[in-house]
Amino acid sequence: MDTSTIKAVLCDIGGVLYEGNTPYPGAVEAVRRLKAAYPVRFLTNTTQKTGEQVVVKLQNMGFGIDASEVITALDVTKTFLKQRCGTATFLLTEDARRFFDDLAEAPCRYVVVGDAQENFTYAALNEAFRTLMAGGELLAAAKNRYFKDHEGKLSMDAGGFVAALEYASGKTAHVIGKPSVDFYRLACDALGVRPEEAVMIGDDIESDVAGAQAAGMRGILVETGKFAPADLERGIAPDAVFPSIAAVAF
Amino acid sequence: MDTSTIKAVLCDIGGVLYEGNTPYPGAVEAVRRLKAAYPVRFLTNTTQKTGEQVVVKLQNMGFGIDASEVITALDVTKTFLKQRCGTATFLLTEDARRFFDDLAEAPCRYVVVGDAQENFTYAALNEAFRTLMAGGELLAAAKNRYFKDHEGKLSMDAGGFVAALEYASGKTAHVIGKPSVDFYRLACDALGVRPEEAVMIGDDIESDVAGAQAAGMRGILVETGKFAPADLERGIAPDAVFPSIAAVAF
To answer: Which of A68, A43, A12, A10 is nearest to A198 (CA)?
Structure first.
């Protein structure tokens, strides 16, 4: 990888900077080093929490990151809804739902699906399904397959529930979060760089690495978080692989 | 359609014989007439109820049908599990779950998904997902998209939740119920006829009509239940279309 052409860095959060509530060894220092060398934005498909909540958690762990440096799938979803209409049926956690409270009421209808956790009830899914069958459009704030929960167990992320609504309704979701090209392009715009001048660092070979590459960026894999050795046998070639964020060298 | 070659009749239940708790006009007499002329089996993908419960409901509505004439997706699922192993993680209603209580314990692992309704909780889906990620295989007792509930509202059927687990786990479900060719072939075997000698009557153009045709049978559509006029524009040509079961003439 030619590091001389790097003008900006995008970086995933969970599974790259920390796991559970603990920073990976050397991660706080690695963030300091990257920020000293490049403009950096921290991107997350976590739709359980708003950017402000994400930043509080990062700061509590010692990361020198502020809210303006974080872009979440909820931010991009809100921008999308503001541009098109003001209302939707939401499948989200309570916190994430409140983030949309200031949207104006409007007649057009979307269904927004994030990582709603226990709010993925049959009743709530049925309400969303009926909105789609009545002409609504499906927005996936994210379409991740699974994540590691606070006990380290793999748990279903929003993706499966998006797939459930797609199958039942016959509609195809518009995906807002990673690996949507829109999300990566928006982050590059925010940094004022072209995609080929940016690198994306993440632990998800599909969403972070292949997604960034599809947007014209370079994708760098770290072997923490949800990384598994079999990920390297799935036909996706990262531009670089490092054991952890602390080992990222450029 | 050449009716002279019909030697047996397969017939869907909900949406063909009755809606809610009420037989369609002329349906009881139509069943009597069909049974007088042909051997008949009543097939249902309903995985909320066992065959015995289905029959009780039919008899209460006046249908002269007994348990030996009903084949449910749960029956075929139980046969499948008995042949291969004795245990599974079940996503089903309480009644349907009890139907599997007499299976022997065994080490091999399946996940069985039926129309679990309110039992489709995030916790239960996650348990099923983790079984799959630990090497389990996914069985869809049925993969229907939706059904009309007792209030006449469209509601999500098992299919969406099968799709959710497929997406999250990366595995493909083995479908047991309609439109699985296995299900139709098993019904033909039970009647001692070849598929081309049987017709299937149903209200679901995909599962009943296209499914039966894929199994080598003729598929007859009735315009009751979940039928909608747009169904006839989906590239599937029923061998015959009748306004209702009462109008079926052969």
So the answer is: A10
Report the pLDDT value the prediction gives residue A79, as an integer from 0 to 100. 83
Q: With 70 as the cut, is the pLDDT of residue A8 above it? A: yes
Check pLDDT > 70 for residue B6: yes
Q: Where are the alpha helices (DSSP H) in chain A?
A: 27-37, 51-60, 73-84, 94-98, 122-133, 158-169, 181-191, 211-214
Residues ≥6 apart with Cβ < 8 Å to B110: B81, B84, B85, B87, B88, B89, B136, B137, B138, B139
Compare CB distances from B122 to A117, A123, A162 and report the shortest one's residue: A117
Q: How far is CA A33 from CA A125, A200, B54, B78, in A?
A: 44, 16, 67, 60
In angstroms, the separation between the Cα of residue B119 and the nearest Cα of chain A is 8
d(CA B128, CA B126): 5
Does the reported pTM lie above 0.90? Answer: no
ipTM, 2 dp: 0.79
| Nearest chain A alpha carbon to B131 | A154
Q: Confidence class of residue B61 from pLDDT cuts 50, 70 and 90?
A: very high
Distance from CA of A61 to the nearest CA of B (A): 29
